[in-house]
Amino acid sequence: MRERVNGGLSTGGEAAESLAIDALGFLAADPERIARFLALSGLGPHNLRRAAASPEFLAAVLDHLAADEPLLVAFAAAQGVEPAAVTAARDTLAGPPPESSP
């Protein structure tokens, strides 16, 4: 069971991986969502399982959700977490995004 903190998700590595795996399941539950993800990622059903073992891939799954606000909100609502918890989990898996220069 995932540890929840203040309506969000703990930022531990295992919790972040678990949320990302849930996100992949969320995408896979809808043929249109998973087809779009596979098309954008360049993956296919034949190599998806192997890729899912990589923290970088799991971070990419969360990046995919974060890039589509309606999808992010739908996933967060389905999981009972704040959308910011998805970003926090992504940062845990891949590190925070680089800061922009002025």
Report on the structure:
By secondary structure, this protein is mostly helical. The protein has one domain (about 10-95). It is built from six helices and two strands, in the order E-E-H-H-H-H-H-H. The protein has a two-stranded antiparallel ribbon with strand order 1-2. A hairpin with a 2-residue loop joins strand 1 and strand 2. Helix 1 (about 15-30) packs across helix 2 (about 30-40) and helix 1 (about 15-30) crosses helix 6. It is globular, with a radius of gyration of 13 Å. Residues about 1-10 have low confidence and may be disordered.
Quick tags:
102 residues; mainly alpha; two-stranded antiparallel ribbon; 6 helices; 2 strands; 4% strand; globular
**Cα end-to-end separation:** 42 Å
Question: What is the N-to-C succession of helices and strands?
Answer: EEHHHHHH
Which band does the percent of strand residues land in? under 5%
Total DSSP E strands: 2
Give a nutshell description of this structure.
By secondary structure, this protein is mainly alpha-helical. Helix content is 68%, strand content 4%. A hairpin with a 2-residue loop joins strand 1 and strand 2.
